[in-house]
Amino acid sequence: MVNLMLLGSWAVNGQSKMNVLKIKTPQDLHSFFRFTGKDAMLITGHRGGIVKGFPENSIATFENTLRHTPAFFEIDPRLTKDSVIVLMHDPTLDRTTTGKGKLSDYTFEELKQFRLKDAEGNVTNYGIPTLAEVIEWGRGKTVLNLDHKDVPLKMSADLIKKHNAEAYVMLTVHKPEEAKYYLGVNKNSMFSAFIRTKEEFDGYEKAGIPFTQMIAYIGPLVKPENKELYKILNEKGTMCMISAASSYDKLKTQEERKAAYVSILKDGASILESDYPIEAAEAAKDLIKKESFKAKFFGLK
Length: 301
Prior knowledge:
globular, TIM Barrel, alpha/beta, disordered N terminus, 301 residues, 14 strands
């Protein structure tokens, strides 16, 4: 079982201040995510999180989550018709905005007329953010994990470089070749890598991708096969993440979800990704122990 540590001034409660991650350099980022066996359980908000009145992939949602718990965020960059990178999970606007049709059929200026919806379909006052403004917002507050949708690798790498954001922006990679490309641009790149099998692990090892510069997404379920992945990845200094977004987050009641989150933590995962990061943090707190050398990375702002 992974040890769960109290993160300094961690507040798993609503408050006016935000929980922040004090990560200033790429080396801090690598250290923050390095598996040691004496680590804090980390919570990541899938698309920011789901709360009524707060739309996914929006700064308002990120800030709401941080008022309850420390977290980093998996977000979804996509391209507009005029090649502006914005946040949008779906290739179409219908589910999450007041717009209709393909995102790529609109310029960013045209997208400004639309409002974001929350998970229940309620229209909010929030507009579609650009990745650039989210990156600037995130500085000194959190870590952003960029999923790979339709944005070319070079555009993502160039934007991180332009905003001098390598200390707190990481990249989801689905295969070693993607990681190798990013490392060729920036040797300090940090990854969330899909490593769901021993064969996928072998691929990253053969490609020479540094395991101390990644977290490993090992899948959406607690299952016996995870034990081998925990062992070989943890020995490399790599934290393992289970995502409940497509699995346990679908359970109907908060009590059912809490039991599932606890099972993930007890299984051996170091990182829990959820559509309900506030609930996940609340579920984790009963297992927390009061010591962690990584406490220096956590604070309030």
